[in-house]
Design brief:
The chain has about 270 residues and is α+β, with helices and mostly antiparallel strands. It has helices spanning about 5-25, 30-135, 140-155, 160-180, 235-245, and strands at about 185-190, 195-205, 210-215, 220-225, 230. Helix 1 runs antiparallel to helix 2 (about 30-135).
């Protein structure tokens, strides 16, 4: 392994050689021979300096290349670490997606199974609703029967999802439920004695269904036990008329007197 020395060291060596030659000449040596030796020494030193300078440039170049390679290695190492972290994140994401896919496939299977079970259930619910309307107090009969028929027709439609069919069915049940919690007045036709008359009906929940002719001369109520309309006395005329106006929000709510069937023990 060679040793690199600075240029000033070579100059010192030349000076030392020249000094030694001069000393030798002073002691009686030949001056010509001493001068030749000095020139030869100087030439050797110059040649050595030139070689050393070339070598130093090679060393500097190799050092720069080494630094560049080290920087590239550090950059590649950092990129490798980043890719490892990214790959770990991707593996976690893929595992989560696989789990989600498995869950969705399970839900799809469950939906298919529920669909096979819910269709018969909805058909039974429609039959129950139809029977309930037939046995209930006869108010808004045409509207309620049309609603049941629309549900039946919807069950055969492929462009309506099962969830929408079920929602519409529950909505119809909710409407029937609300009938028992409010009062309503509407105009309609009343059949009797072979003719139809337009009257005002008053429904109070499901406990009473009454009517009054448009001229107010006749007032009646539905008799649930007898299954027919009965005419009420004149003492109910004012109360029923007041109830009709209350249901239409024409007057403020107030207490009214209406006939209510007596409660019977459940069988």
């Amino acid at each position: 392994m060679f040793e690199i020395r600075p240029p000033w060291w070579r100059t010192c060596r030349v000076f030392e050689v020249a000094l030694a030659v001069s000393v030798g000449a002073g002691l009686g040596g030949p001056i010509t021979a001493g001068a030749a030796s000095v020139n030869e020494a100087i030439g050797q030193e110059v040649t050595g300096n030139t070689a050393n300078a070339v070598s130093q440039k090679k060393v500097d170049k190799l050092s720069d290349q080494t630094e560049d390679l080290a920087a590239a290695y550090r950059s590649a190492l950092q990129s490798t670490r980043s890719l490892q972290v990214y790959n770990q994140q991707l593996e976690s994401l893929i595992a989560s997606q696989d789990s989600e896919v498995a869950s969705l496939e399970k839900q799809i299977d469950s939906v298919t199974e529920v669909g096979r079970e819910i269709m018969p259930l909805m058909l039974r619910m429609i039959d129950t609703l139809d029977q309930f309307v037939s046995l209930d107090v006869p108010f808004l009969e045409e509207e309620r029967r049309d609603r049941v028929q629309q549900l039946r027709d919807m069950m055969d439609r492929a462009d309506v999802t099962i969830s929408e069919k079920y929602r519409r069915l529950l909505e119809s049940y909710q409407i029937e439920y609300d009938y028992g919690r409010n009062i309503e007045a509407y105009s309609g036709e009343l059949a009797g004695d072979g003719q139809k008359r337009t009257v005002d009906f008053l429904r109070i929940g499901r406990i009473a269904l009454l009517y009054q002719t448009l001229d107010g001369e006749e007032t009646g109520a539905w008799d649930r036990e007898a299954g027919k309309w009965v005419i009420l006395g004149d003492d109910y005329r004012g109360s029923v008329g007041q109830g009709i106006r209350m249901a239409r929000k024409q007057v403020a709510p107030n207490l009214i007197r209406i006939p209510v069937p007596a409660a019977v023990a459940a069988k």
